[in-house]
């Protein structure tokens, strides 16, 4: 019994070390070869179209893969173009109205300074004049220190922005090279897909191949379920924003509702990336009622999303609502705002591993070791 327990502990240690090494190795390899993995993913997504063109339209394999790639790029480019036109239209509208907005903003800031800040400052100066010499020096030093800290903070903030922009510019050539490799890899992987699959079947053990096939089928359904859930949440958010903007009688409400709905895909903030800056601007420019209304609209969208998100994700991806809630909270705690996306993804991976029997096989190995068929 003691010997069996010792073997169980040893095999448990082996499994833990193997998983840690596997995670490290996959991470290191992915950093070096990520264009090819992304290309394999896109080639897999374009494979049904390429197969249709090859078998039904009688295209040669190379032409079918190239045509599927061009069609995929056209669809992707069309989406990007549509979003670009929406952004350009919004920027043009902003550019037309920005001068009057800025003028009104500075007038409100000046009025606020004259009516609120200046009287307070005069009171402070009056207090400073009534202080003793030593107290006055201390008071002035404190004010100087606060000003110095604010100046330092602003300088650091500006430096971080400059460093970030520099990093973005430096990464542009790398991105273009990676994008070129992805395009070329999509073509070659799509053209030789059957040969690559045959190689996997030949050199990878049958049991591992069965797990990979089961994982692919389960992942396909879960991925589509996740995309479906996000589209549902974006649609519901867009409808709520459209109704709210209609009640407030805002111009271009359809375009704004679409933009806010698309922004919902951003982790944590979502609609806040549009509605909150807008509400702050209206508050500064003196439109307090409209600013409060937009803040209320943002609160409603957040409450509705947080209420229905677990249910939508659980129904679309066939997951337990409690498990989805736990994954959202755990992801937020571990990874921050991005964790609201990573949490459900990790939950999906764990559920798929359970469904295809990976954890069952690990338990079997830990308890009894390798068993002959």
TrEMBL record:
One annotated GO biological process: transmembrane transport
Keywords, alphabetical: Membrane, Transmembrane, Transmembrane helix
Chief location of this protein within or outside the cell: membrane
Localization, UniProt: Membrane
Mode of membrane association: Multi-pass membrane protein
Recorded GO CC terms: membrane
Pfam families: AI-2E_transport
InterPro entries named among the record's database cross-references: AI-2E-like, YtvI-like
This protein's name: Sporulation integral membrane protein YtvI
Organism listed in the record: Salibacterium salarium
């Amino acid at each position: 019994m003691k010997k069996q327990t010792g073997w169980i502990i040893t095999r448990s240690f082996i499994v833990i070390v193997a998983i840690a090494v596997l995670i490290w190795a996959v991470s290191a390899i992915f950093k070096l070869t990520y264009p090819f993995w992304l290309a394999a993913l896109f080639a897999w997504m374009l494979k049904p179209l390429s197969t249709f063109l090859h078998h039904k339209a009688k295209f040669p394999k190379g032409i079918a893969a190239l045509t599927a790639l061009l069609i995929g790029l056209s669809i992707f480019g069309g989406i990007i173009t549509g979003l670009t036109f929406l952004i350009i239209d919004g920027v043009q509208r902003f550019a037309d109205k920005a001068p009057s907005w800025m003028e009104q903003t500075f007038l409100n800031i000046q009025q606020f300074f004259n009516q609120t800040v200046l009287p307070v400052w005069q009171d402070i100066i009056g207090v400073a004049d009534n202080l003793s010499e030593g107290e006055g020096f201390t008071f002035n030093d404190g004010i100087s220190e606060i000003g110095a800290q604010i100046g330092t903070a602003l300088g650091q903030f500006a430096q971080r922005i400059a460093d970030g922009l520099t990093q973005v510019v430096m990464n542009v050539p790398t991105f273009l090279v990676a994008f070129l490799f992805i395009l070329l890899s999509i073509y070659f992987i799509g053209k030789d897909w059957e040969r690559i699959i045959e190689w996997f079947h030949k050199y990878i053990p049958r049991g591992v191949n069965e797990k990979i096939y089961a994982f692919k089928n389960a992942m396909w359904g879960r991925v589509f379920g996740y995309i479906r859930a996000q589209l549902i949440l974006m649609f519901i958010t867009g409808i709520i924003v459209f109704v709210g903007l209609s009640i407030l009688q805002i111009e271009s409400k359809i375009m704004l509702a679409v933009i806010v709905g698309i922004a919902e895909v951003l982790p944590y903030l979502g609609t806040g990336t549009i509605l909150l800056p807008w509400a702050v601007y209206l508050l500064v420019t003196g439109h307090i009622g409209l600013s409060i209304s937009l803040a209320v609209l943002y609160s409603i969208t957040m409450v509705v999303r947080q209420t229905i998100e677990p249910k939508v994700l659980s129904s679309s991806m066939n997951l337990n609502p409690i498990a989805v809630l736990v994954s959202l909270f755990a992801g937020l705690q571990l990874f921050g705002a991005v964790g609201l996306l990573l949490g459900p993804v990790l939950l999906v991976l764990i559920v798929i591993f359970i469904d295809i029997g990976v954890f069952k096989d690990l338990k079997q190995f830990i308890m009894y070791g390798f068993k002959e068929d």
